[in-house]
Task: inverse folding
């Protein structure tokens, strides 16, 4: 008998060597192995006879190898194999497949799966690039006594057959997985306990875990083929729901713990409101008002705020952040505002000086490029509580700053940081809060104009947690936000400030560059500014991407010798970068040639044209971010996507989406579809959990359900659910899922 928790090494046919190979795939235990689901299924219940095949259909054919060989045409080598059933024959071809040279031997039985097509002359049918499996050569690693061979054969044909991704550079084949998983299933205890509480199971009609594991690998003959391929059979739903349910349970628990922590209950009275009103340079939009209310109401409560503020580029998040900062400052607390880049930190600093300093708030900018003395000075001011709003890069503030009395941490453009990093940050703020107590004991002066807020006394030793506001321009679909930022409450600015004219987006091939530059010239002549963005800095010999540096030279000396052309890229000295940015902001540069460093947050409302060369090379989210740099004023703005050379199919879809819509949410959804959530958030390396069986895009609906059910379970016990059941579920979450998801860290 095997336990689910048994290491795979002890499964018959695996051993320590193959266990290592599996471990690279994240398969450590029998449970992991059984959650290694087929990525598709083949209907070999009714394999087709060659004579009844029709062109255009997908078909499985089981036949015998007759002849095979490699042919070289002028363009490429083609491998051809003829398979037969009695007197019928079927030609199969693979392009560029020299590796198949010695694969087939006459007389072997093969399963072939692929698209049936008419050949060039339309007379004969053939399978083009079919998937295949040789059915009668035993895989050496599993041993091969007679019974085992018979079993193996029955696993390959006469049923719906699971197809697995191979592992270990093809060493562990789909057939290998099929046999190993089959034997693991056979050796499972007959009654696996179900960790999902009964009431949830009933509500969702979930089948038992054992049933689900069997059927997901070895579907019943009557199972809907469509549901199988779509991962929507009862077996799939059970397993996917289970995974999502326990992740959500962990997140919900975390959310509840956070709500119970000791934070700061900021005072929000007429005086504070008046202070906010005083700084507003414009009438906030209804959406801005709404999110400020949500934020203010969090800040008023004794539990620490953990809120995500989401708003498309240009929707006006900055002023909302400043408003929140005022609440904290008026209460005598300090605020940290962290940006992903120095340029952005600087930009926030300029705005803060413009908007907040006249009202008497003390704002400091802490950047890496400052002289050491100056840095030390600023740090001292921060530690003493003199600086009220501290603006800097995330890295800098996190690494080296000790606050006298931190009350609010604002993280801008969160999508640049990994998910994990955010968690580190929160830990840091609580460490800072510990310092806070010490500093207070040394008698820190409380700055700010209002009376100090009432610290919540829950235990005399626990320091209050600062509030955290995370801002992002990435329009994360709500259900995804639930999981990715599962412990954050969500506020959305879904309205643009008034007076914006929609951006016109056009796509042109770069052989029409002349026309584009003519247009740019006209825009500059009418007083506007232009961005020209390139994917790389220096020309690379391997590819012919136009590089920012080279194009800067060409544009400034040849195309626009009479205009003021500037250059901005990531490798410039920080000082220089700032200078260039400032010149552009002041309107002293007409055309800014740049790499994607301008991507996030930069705000120059007089810029009306964004030319992106080699637009096909950029990701969709990135293109949208870049386009967000224009259209910030009342004048009509234009985004020109230039393409050079051949554009891939995905590239076409990205460009097409850009031309079709300005709606960040629509773009995000498509980007998710094209790239998957891991890359979408740039979090693969930052440790976003990749799910075992769930897929955040495909399973959005189930995710939503799982989230509700997890919340319901935790609000028990009640008539529906006993404390014992809740405990069992929590125990399972900790033992089975928590280590899979570092995120769902439950203290
Ligand atoms: P983002 O959400 O991308 O950070 P910003 O906060 O930089 O956007 O705002 C974009 C521009 O819109 C800024 O120039 C800002 O001053 C302006 N803005 C923001 N809110 C309003 C408003 N309610 N009315 C008019 N202009 C606004
Ligand atoms: Mg911004």
Result:
């Amino acid at each position: 008998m095997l336990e689910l928790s048994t290491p795979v090494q002890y499964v018959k046919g695996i051993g320590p060597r193959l266990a290592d190979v599996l471990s690279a795939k994240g398969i450590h235990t029998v449970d992991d192995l059984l959650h290694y689901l087929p990525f598709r299924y083949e209907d070999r219940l009714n394999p087709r006879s060659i004579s009844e095949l029709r062109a255009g259909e997908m078909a499985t054919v089981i036949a015998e190898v007759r002849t095979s060989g490699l042919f070289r045409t002028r363009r490429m080598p083609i491998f051809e194999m003829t398979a037969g059933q009695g007197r019928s024959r079927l030609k199969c071809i693979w392009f560029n497949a020299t590796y198949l040279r010695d694969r087939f031997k006459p007389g072997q039985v093969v399963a072939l799966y692929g698209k049936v097509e008419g050949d060039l002359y339309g007379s004969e049918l053939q399978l083009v690039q079919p998937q295949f499996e040789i059915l009668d050569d035993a895989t050496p690693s599993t041993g091969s006594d007679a019974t085992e061979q018979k079993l193996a054969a029955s696993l390959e044909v006469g049923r719906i057959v699971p197809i697995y991704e191979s592992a270990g550079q093809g060493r562990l084949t789909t057939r290998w997985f099929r046999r190993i998983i089959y034997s693991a299933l056979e050796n499972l205890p007959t009654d696996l306990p179900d960790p999902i509480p009964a009431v949830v199971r009933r509500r969702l009609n979930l089948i038992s875990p054992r049933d689900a594991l069997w059927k997901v690998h070895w579907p019943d003959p009557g199972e809907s083929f469509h549901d199988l391929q779509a991962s929507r059979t009862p077996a799939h739903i059970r397993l996917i729901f289970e995974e999502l349910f326990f992740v959500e349970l962990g997140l919900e628990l975390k959310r509840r713990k956070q709500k119970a922590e000791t934070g700061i209950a900021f005072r929000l009275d007429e005086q504070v409101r008046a202070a906010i009103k005083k700084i507003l340079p414009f009438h906030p939009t209804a959406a801005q008002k709404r999110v400020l209310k949500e934020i203010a109401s969090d800040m008023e409560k004794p539990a620490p705020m953990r809120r995500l503020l989401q708003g498309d580029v240009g929707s006006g998040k900055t002023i909302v952040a400043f408003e929140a900062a005022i609440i904290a400052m008026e209460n005598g607390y300090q605020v940290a505002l962290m940006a992903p880049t120095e340029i952005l930190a600087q930009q926030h600093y300029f705005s803060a000086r413009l908007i907040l300093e006249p009202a008497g708030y003390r704002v400091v900018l802490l950047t890496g490029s400052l002289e050491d003395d100056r840095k030390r000075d600023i740090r001292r001011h921060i530690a003493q509580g003199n600086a009220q709003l501290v603006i800097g890069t995330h890295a800098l503030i996190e690494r080296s700053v000790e606050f006298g009395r931190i009350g609010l941490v604002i993280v801008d453009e969160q999508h640049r940081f990994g998910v994990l990093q955010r968690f580190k940050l929160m830990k840091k703020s609580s460490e800072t809060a510990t310092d806070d107590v010490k500093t207070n004991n040394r008698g820190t002066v409380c700055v700010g104009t209002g009376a100090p807020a009432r610290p919540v006394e829950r235990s005399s030793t626990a320091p209050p947690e600062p509030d955290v506001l995370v801002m992002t321009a990435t329009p994360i679909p709500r259900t995804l936000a639930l999981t990715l930022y599962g412990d954050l409450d969500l506020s959305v600015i879904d309205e643009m400030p008034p007076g914006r004219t929609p951006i016109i987006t056009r796509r042109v091939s770069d052989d029409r560059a002349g026309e584009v530059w003519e247009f740019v010239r006209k825009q500059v002549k009418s007083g506007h500014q232009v961005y020209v963005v390139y994917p790389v800095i220096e020309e690379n010999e391997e590819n012919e991407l136009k590089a920012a540096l080279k194009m800067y030279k060409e544009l400034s000396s040849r195309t626009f010798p009479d205009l003021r052309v500037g250059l901005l890229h990531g490798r410039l000295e920080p000082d220089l970068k700032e200078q260039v940015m400032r010149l552009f902001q002041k309107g002293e540069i007409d055309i800014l040639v740049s790499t994607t460093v301008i991507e996030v947050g930069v705000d120059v409302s007089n810029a009306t044209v964004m030319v992106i060369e080699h637009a096909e090379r950029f990701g969709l989210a990135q293109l949208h971010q870049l386009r967000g740099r224009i259209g910030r004023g009342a004048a009509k703005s234009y985004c020109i996507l230039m393409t050079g050379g051949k554009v891939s199919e995905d590239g076409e879809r990205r460009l097409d989406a850009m031309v079709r819509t300005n709606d960040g949410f629509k773009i995000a959804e498509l980007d998710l579809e094209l790239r998957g959530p891991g890359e979408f958030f740039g979090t693969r390396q930052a440790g976003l959990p990749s799910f075992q069986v769930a897929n955040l895009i495909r399973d959005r609906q189930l995710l939503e359900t799982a989230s509700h059910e997890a919340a319901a379970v935790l609000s028990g016990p009640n008539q529906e659910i006993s404390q014992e059941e809740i405990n069992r579920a929590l125990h399972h979450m900790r033992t089975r899922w928590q280590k899979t998801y570092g995120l769902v860290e439950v203290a």
Observations:
- The two ends are 34 Å apart (CA to CA).
